[in-house]
Amino acid sequence: MEKLLDEKQLAQFLQMVDEAEHIVICAHVNPDGDAIGSSLALKHWLVRRGKDAQVVVPNIFPDFLQWMPDAQSIHVYFNHEEKVRPVLQAADLFIIADMNEPGRLREMEADFLALDVPRIMIDHHLNPSDFCQLIISHPEMCATCEVLCHLMWQLGEAERLTLEEATCLYTGMMCDTGAFTYASGRAVIYECISMLLSRGIDKDRIYRRVFYTASLARLRLQGYMLYVKLRVIRERHTSIMTLNSEERKRFKIKNGDTEGLVNMPLVIHKMRLSIFLTEDTEQPGLVKVSLRSVDNFPCNKMAAEFFEGGGHLNASGGRVHGTMEDALRVVDRAIEAYAKWLS
Questions:
Q1: Looking at residue 260, what is its pLDDT?
Q2: What is the pLDDT of residue 301?
Q3: How distant is the alpha carbon of residue 325 from its chain centre?
Q4: β-pair type (231-233, 238-243)
Q5: CATH assignment at residue 11
Q6: How many domains does the chain have?
Q7: Which residues of the chain have pLDDT under 50?
Q8: Nearest Cα to 71, choosing from 168, 169, 170, 210?
Q9: Does 2 map to a domain?
């Protein structure tokens, strides 16, 4: 295990937490398993320290994460602004989990930045913005939940982690590594897993809940997407799938049903890049973009350059304002701009 903070930083972290009474944990838009896992793990730990802790996310999160301990208490900002603003305004400390810059709060950003409240960032994304008083950022780590594992160990909490805290931390690490199939080659990751197993987690049950729990609609959607919607550009070793609002209605898609679809085409021989476009159900006129790759193709650079997004080397996301046709034109430009990586 690794010490992340020097003595001065550790004292600053503990002082900021100890002096606060009402702590709000914020994660990025379209929160994934690592965002929800790290946020809930922090909430459980803070409540155990006697704090009033709340989790606020910009928009809804996948249904396959709803089982996580205390997930039902998470405040969703989008479409609930009047209810959530008082939660933000009551905070005397913000902890930013799994997010490196305030723009990733999207519609919640203005309300967040308007508040003169101390902030701590705990994250693993590249290039953290300087908008927090204390930044705990480790891009070499596989997930923000891994960062928290090391931090809990440094705080002497390894033997005191509750089953709920350990479950949240493992879920986040598992989700951000595709069940430890990528970005998971560092030996210390498995020290973290060992620590969490010692706290009683059922890793097989967690895996089944996240990756092997599906509705009939989800299974039918997968078949439709792979048989009807999958387009392969062989000379660029790239695949593209699209899902529009009419198709979402036809298949009765619920939040989270599309999770993992973008990874499937990467099993095709010599495939290097998979792109998945879906019309946003919450914001008409917005197309969400998911990028997945193998080897050294830089999804994060493509996402930042063409899709107002970012993320990791092999897994990133973004968006395009406009129609699906607009988004496909941007995708075509992006593929040609990165042709040397894909040929």
A1: 87
A2: 95
A3: 27
A4: antiparallel
A5: 3.90.1640.10
A6: 2
A7: none
A8: 168
A9: no
- pTM of this structure: 0.89
CATH, residue 263: 3.10.310.30
Contact yes or no for 133/120 (Cβ under 8 A): yes
Q: Which residue has the tokens 């939040």?
A: 255
Helix (H) or strand (E) holding 14: helix 7-19
Whether residue 276 sits in one domain with residue 134: no
DSSP assignment of 94-147 equals: EEEES-SSGGGGGGGHHHHHTS---EEEEE-SSS--S-SSEEEE-TTSS-HHHH
Contact 73, 40 (CB under 8 A): no
CA distance 178 to 166: 18
- Structure confidence at residue 92 (pLDDT): 97
Q: Strands across the sheet with 22-26, in order?
A: 75-76, 52-57, 22-26, 93-97, 119-123, 134-137
Q: What's the pLDDT score for residue 82? A: 96
Q: What is the DSSP letter of 272?
A: -
Q: Supply the pLDDT for residue 256.
A: 78
| Residue range(s) defining the domain that contains residue 36 | 7-211
Amino acid letter for position 181: T
Q: 258 to each of 28, 169, 221, 227, 279, how far by Cα in Å?
A: 19, 23, 8, 15, 12
